[in-house]
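User: Quick sanity check before I run a bigger batch. Here is a single chain. Can you write out its predicted 3D structure?
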Amino acid sequence: MTNISGLSWLKALLYVLVTLYAIITLIPFLWALSASFKPLTEIVSSEPNFLPKNFTLDNYRQIFLQEPLFWRWLFNSVAIALSVTLLNLLLNSMAGYALARLRFVGKRFWFFLILAVLAVPAQITLIPTFLILKAMSTTGYAYGWLNSYQGMIVPSMVNATFIFMMRQFFVNFPKELEETAQLDGLNTLGIFRHIVLPLAKPALAAQAVFVFMGSWNNFLLPIVILFDPEMFTPPLGLNTFKGQYISYWNYIMAASMVFTLPALSIYAFFNRYFIQSVTFTGGKG
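Assistant: Done. Predicted structure follows.
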């Protein structure tokens, strides 16, 4: 009885701590949401207030109707994030399946190389990425890779983290299903397309969420290779509302709320797959 009572108290304490953590995490987002309906003078005033005293929709009218590049920034981010996500889903899955199931020369070398890439911070690769894109733009091989959609998409179309994740998923994938498909006359590509991918929806959905959100919120790569305001993505576009002497935090907060909606929608839609993907990808190596 004592052990049961102790576990109940421990569980209750855990729920309290998780709830407090959730509240602390949500407070900045809720403040930003509230600030998006405030005039600038109220945001920068020294008087703290969580709810807007002078509720206004002028901030949203300004970014939707008066900011000429707002819709272009939104289009740029949607095009880049969707392209990066689809390419990652295809290429990472193919690479993960090859490492898990196929036999080829250098398989262990490529697997350990991918593990080594995981240890390299993404910031380290920014300058090499810029130099490679610049060289490709000036040699005539691929004109215009800087300040372009392909310059944003191609360096991000594969990800070592998700190659490893998909490899772990396919290692635990039932071989009996593939053997049955082989008896029915399917080749490797057919097995991958018709058997493996449809059953890999939990891992693919989790990968789609993380890749999309990472591409949508990416700031470092755009600031390195994009210099034309018409090519900016939302994180970079928001920076234009900040000046040397004044920052229009009311417009920044309103635009941030609009740009947050696609990522939240993607996460909410695929959220149910997260637990399944953790179950499948956390197995043997």
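The longest helix spans residues 2-35.

User: Great, the batch can go ahead then.
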